[in-house]
Design brief:
alpha+beta, five-stranded antiparallel sheet, 5 strands, about 25% strand
Amino acid sequence: MRRAQIYYSDTIAGILSETSDGEYIFKYNDDYVVTHPDQFITFTMPVTSRQYKVNRLFPFFEGLIPEGWLLDIATKNWKINPNDRMGLLLACCKNCIGAVSVIPIPEEDEE
């Protein structure tokens, strides 16, 4: 399972996970729900304690992935398949334009 911490500015907002079944789960951090109930990362995912679950990468996160020539550079340099959207998100979106950052959580066998 690949996972990432999702930050809003300097605050951890939640965890994004890709399951072995290819599903994507986003869950806001419990502290974030209490302290920032109106500071959602996207209109389609209001702050809540329940998890969001989809079969394709959430459109908001998909929109963070580079396109065009920048995508070509990323896929060639990191040898990532352009269809591996979670892999691209983890590799390319640590310092995005805007308030949201994606920080990979190392898999247990990588530590």
